[in-house]
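Researcher: Good morning. I'm working through a list of sequences from a screen, and I'd like to move beyond sequence-only analysis. For each chain I'm collecting a predicted structure so we can compare shapes side by side. This is the next one on the list. No need for commentary yet; just the structure.
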Amino acid sequence: MPRSTASTAQAGTIDVLVNCAGYGEFGSVEETTLAEARQQLEVNVLGAVGLIQAVLPGMREARSGRIVNVSSLAGEFASPLGGWYHASKFALEAISDSLRGEVGQFGIDVTLVQPTYVATDWHETAVGHLEASSATGPYSGMAAAMRAYFASPALARQMASVDAVAA
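Model: Good morning. Structure tokens for this chain:
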């Protein structure tokens, strides 16, 4: 069965897709395994693209729709020990920009949301990956500094709520 028929038959008409799944694979580029790097790209980029590909035929047919890709300000800069996460967000932003130019002719809008720090368990997950890959060894000092930064009350005060980001 063609992809558009299968997705429409299962879910009905889809007017809006919000891609907001993601996590942070933190650790040095050297010490992060390629399997971990692939998983980061699978979740943060290819998962979003798979959903986009599933809904686009129906949106094109309807000549309307909106795709919202939730990225991060981390798609605008790269910091040490966040290379794979930043790469995934840079990629999602490039895909969004290209897609916007491709599908605008069909009445489909592509929106990119770039929140900064959001009050979720994302930071604990990122620190867990950081600990697993770089807490010991040549990057341990940097990892300890990043761990302290993510745990700082000053960072907690900068965090937006999930509701604020959704609005």
